[in-house]
Amino acid sequence: MLEIIIRITLICVSLSMLGLIYRVIKGPTTPDRVVALDALGVNLIAIVALVSMLIDSDAFLEVILLLGILAFIGTVSFSKFLEKGAIIERDRNR
Amino acid sequence: MTEIVNYIIGFFLLAGGFLSLVASFGVLRLPDVYTRNHAASKSATLGIMCILLGTFLYFYIVHGIFNSKVLLAIVFIFVTAPVGGHLIARAAYHSGAKLWDKSVRDDLKDKEKYDRQHS
Q: Record's PANTHER family (chain A) (predicted)?
C-alpha cells in the first residue's frame, strides 16, 4: 500500500514541477522566474526523498540537506543581484 | 503497529503532494509576483515539511534508522524558505515589478515622502 502512495505522491510532485517550469519559461518578470526556480528546488528535495523511499536506501538523504542549502543560497544571491546590481559589494573604506 | 504507522506515513505523504500541487496551481493562476510568491513560499514549504516528516518516520520505524539529517533539513527549510520569500519579494518591489491593477493600496509607495517630512 505504501509503495502505491509513494508513487501517487511522486506523480503529484512531478505535475507541480511541470507547472512551475511553465512559469519559469513564460513568467513576465525576472522575480517571477526566481520564485518559480526556488519552488522547483524545493520540489526536487521532495523527489529525492520519495525516490530514496522507493528504492529503500538511506544513501541519498544527505542530498536533501545539500539541495536545501543550495536553493537558499541561490535565491539570496539572485535577490541581491536584482536589488543592488552586485552580489558581493566592494568595501569602500580600504 | 506497523499498519497504523503505514497509515500515518501515507497521510503525511499525500498531504505533502497535495500541498505541493496547490502551490504550483497558485503559481500558475495568481495575477502578480507578490501573490505568486505568497503561494509558492508557503504551500511549498509546508508540503516539503510533510513529505520529509513522512520520510523520517518511514526510515525510523520501518527500517530502524534514525536519520538526523532529515530532521535538520526540516528545520533548515522551515527557517530559510520564508527568508528567501521575503528577500525575493523585496527585490521585486525595488526592481519595479508592478502590483496587480486591482490592488487597492500600496503603503510603501509614499515612504520617501514620509521620510522627508518626518526627519
A: NA(+)/H(+) ANTIPORTER SUBUNIT F1, NA(+)_H(+) ANTIPORTER SUBUNIT F
Give the total number of structural domains in chain A.
1
User: Domain range holding A31?
Assistant: 1-86
Residue B94 touches partner A, C-beta closer than 8 Å: yes
Q: Please enumerate in sequence order all residues whose Cβ is within 8 A of that of A24, keeping only pairs 6 or more positions apart, or say none.
A: A33, A36, A37, A40
Place of cell 520505524: B61
Residue A48 covered by a domain: yes
Would you list the domain boundaries of chain B?
Answer: 1-118
Q: What is the ipTM of this complex?
A: 0.87
Residue A33 in contact with partner chain B when CB distance is under 8 A:
no
Q: Mind telling me how many Å the CA of A93 is from chain B's nearest CA? A: 26
Q: pLDDT of B81-112, one tens digit each?
A: 999 999 999 888 888 777 777 777 777 777 77
Residue-wise DSSP of B89-104: HHHHHHTTPPPPTT--
Residue B1 predicted with pLDDT over 80: no
Say whether residue B75 is in contact with chain A using an 8 A CB cutoff.
no
Instruction: Give per-residue pLDDT as tens, A6-32.
Output: 999 999 999 999 999 999 998 788 889
